[in-house]
Amino acid sequence: MPNPYDDLFDNPLPDKKPESSGETPADPTPEPMFSFDGDFDPDGPDALDEILALNLDFNNRAEEFSRNLSKLRVVDHEVKGKVTRLFLVSNDPHRRGSLAGEKQYHQLQTEKFFAIIEPMRELAELHMTIVKQFNRDIDEHYFSVEKTKGRIESEKTLAMDNINLQRKILAEAADALKILRGGLIDTERRLKEYVNAGGKNNISSSEFELLVRKREQLTTGLDHQFDYRIFDTNLLDKTALSLGIYMKETSAQYLARLGKAFQ
Predict the structure, then answer these.
(1) What ranges does the record give for the region Disordered, renumbered to this chain (predicted)?
(2) Which residues of 153-190 are buried (b: 16+ CB within 10 A; e: fewer)?
(3) How far is Cα 178 from Cα 114, in angstroms, rounded to an integer?
(4) What is the mean pLDDT of residues 125-133?
(5) Is 222 helix (H, G, I), strand (E, B) or coil?
(6) CB atoms within 10 A of CB 150
(7) pTM score, two decimals?
(8) Closest-CA residue to 253 (of 235, 221, 230)
(9) Nearest alpha-carbon partner for 77 in 181, 206, 148
(10) Where are the beta strands (DSSP E) in the chain?
(11) What is the dihedral of CA 96, 100, 105, 107, to 10 degrees?
(12) Domain residues of the chain, as ranges?
């Protein structure tokens, strides 16, 4: 016997059409003619103003840092006439004459190294931020509707002068750390004379080796994950800085080196 419900499933009802409300459908929202970069903020700070503010922050921090460099008198620890002293021990102005004296001198130089490298790292991070932003945002196409062309050029020059000054400050700090590193190594040369020497001026070989290893961790920048040697200036850099020249191409190469300072 045929199933009386077959027709219901074999012939489904047609789709019901939506009832018309009698209203004309609204036009779709038109697409904008122009699209903007998602990172662009029309109400954000002016790029050059932001760089000048960062430069001011750097200068404020650098004032205290530079005063500390003066107080530390690192140049007093500079090792000179190394070859001559190999033959004339009495000519060594840094010799302390005892194990205790050499240890104290080593500790003094270590403390000065710490006093420089820690704030220097903070300044270097700020400096890298400034250089990155300047190279990214400020070029011949930069403009501001609120500034005259003359003011823009004046502020760009001011920003470049500040960046060059920052490089000089960081280079001077790097030189100071280099002097201290040399002084520490030279002190260790004298300390080695007391290894297993006996008496009150005696230091074990293991204590000496650990002292050297600890110093190496510090003076190579590993303790602070900061290679301060990046800020050494070559002849081209020194010439450009002395003339107050900001060479963007050279700065781009310098920026690539900067990134390696914190690895």
Answers:
(1) 1-40
(2) eebbeebbebbbbbbbbbbbbbbbbbbbbbbbebbbeb
(3) 13
(4) 94
(5) coil
(6) 8
(7) 0.77
(8) 230
(9) 181
(10) none
(11) 170
(12) 45-260
Q: Which one-letter amino acid corresponds to residue 252? A: A
132: amino acid identity, one letter? K
Among 4, 232, 187, which Cα is nearest to 82's?
Answer: 187
pLDDT tens per residue across span 61-95: 999 999 999 999 999 999 987 644 555 555 788 99
* SS3 letters across 139-184: CCCCCCCCCCHHHHHHHHHHHHHHHHHHHHHHHHHHHHHHHHHHHH
With contact defined as beta carbons under 8 Å apart, do 58 and 162 qualify?
A: yes
Query: Can you give the pLDDT at residue 203?
Result: 97
> Rounded to an integer, what distance in angstroms lies between the CA atom of residue 249 and that of residue 135?
9
Supply 251's token pair: 């700065």
**81 burial class (0-12, 13-18, 19+ CB within 10 angstroms)?**
exposed
Burial of 58 per CB tally in 10 Å (0-12, 13-18, 19+): buried
With H, G, I as helix, E, B as strand and everything else as coil, classify residue 203: strand
